[in-house]
Amino acid sequence: MISVVIPTKNAAQFIGACIQAVRAQDFPADQTEIIVVDNFSTDDTKAVAERHGVTVHQLGPERSAQRNFGAQQAKGELLLFLDADMTIAPNALRACATALSDPGVAGCFIAERVRGEGFWTRVRDFERSFYDATPIDAVRCIRRQAFLDVGGYDTALWAAEDWDLDRRLASKGRFVSAETFLEHNEGEFDFGRYVKKKAYYATNFSAYFAKWGRDAITRKQFGFWYRFAGVFLENGKWKRFLAHPIYALAMYWLRFLVGVVYLRSEGWSKR
After folding, report:
1. To the nearest whole percent, how much of the chain has pLDDT over 90?
2. Lowest mean pLDDT segment, chosen from 94-108, 115-129, 192-206, 241-255
């Protein structure tokens, strides 16, 4: 069985499509479980999920605690963590089950596509496509016992909590990529909202550095060379990068904004 854990907060416009995508899988319905953990939404998130036949648990304060709670309630041997604004391809659950059929595999990556309106959303999709199965990505489907053995998500982290989990899960087995994809609906791109979100995450990076220091992995995740060049050029990806110069230039403008936010953040100043 695969348990799909979906943390939510004020996601009424997305949660229905997320649940429907899970229900539309080419995977046995009796081997699928959906667990929604809502952070006391002030919109209709809970009501929409319940109209789709899902029992909604309520818990906060952040998604790490919500995901841990969902994992504790789960009956499945595998856990698939989705955000409420994501939908999965029709073969996703079967592909995850296949990827984790090898007992030596602890978790699998799922390629992510960014969807929404406008040029800047296409730029975000272009950028995100280079991160799949890299240190900047995170596993989405995880063997439940391995998840519980390492203690789940660190509830002290609300940024880089997925990277932190991956580092601990690595002791339980290797990671592979599932032959499927998911779509992340970011709607119409909003510069202010984008930078505000990045600034919020940046305030918690100091906790991640306190835990892992400046080793080879964190240098890739936060270092200038890898984030601005290496991840786009490695393993032959430079061909696709150079084939789209407009997207590449626009992406670097976004990366510059994120870099400024990071350097000005509380997280950087406390390191």
Report:
1. 82
2. 192-206
Per the structure, the complete domain to which residue 131 belongs is given by 2-269
Whole-number CA gyration radius for the chain: 18
- Token pair 């406390």 is found at 270
CATH number of the structural domain spanning residue 203: 3.90.550.10
pLDDT at 267 over 70: no
Q: Which residue has the tokens 């789960």?
A: 74
Please tell me whether residue 239 adopts helix, strand or coil conformation: helix
Q: Is 88 helix (H, G, I), strand (E, B) or coil?
A: strand
Please tell me the total count of domains within the chain: 1
Average pLDDT on 78-96 reads: 98
Q: Render pLDDT for 160-190 as a digit per residue (tens, 0 to 9).
A: 999 999 999 999 999 999 999 999 998 888 8
pTM: 0.92
How far apart CA 254 and CA 132 sit, in angstroms, is 19
Under 8 Å between Cβ of 196 and 100? no
State how far the alpha carbon of 124 is from the alpha carbons of 66, 87, 212, 221, 242, in Å: 27, 17, 28, 18, 16
pLDDT of residue 94: 98
Q: Which amino acid appears at position 68 of this protein?
A: N
Q: 103: burial class by Cβ within 10 Å (0-12, 13-18, 19+)?
A: exposed
Sheet holding 86-88, edge to edge: 56-58, 32-38, 2-8, 78-81, 141-143, 105-117, 174-188, 86-88
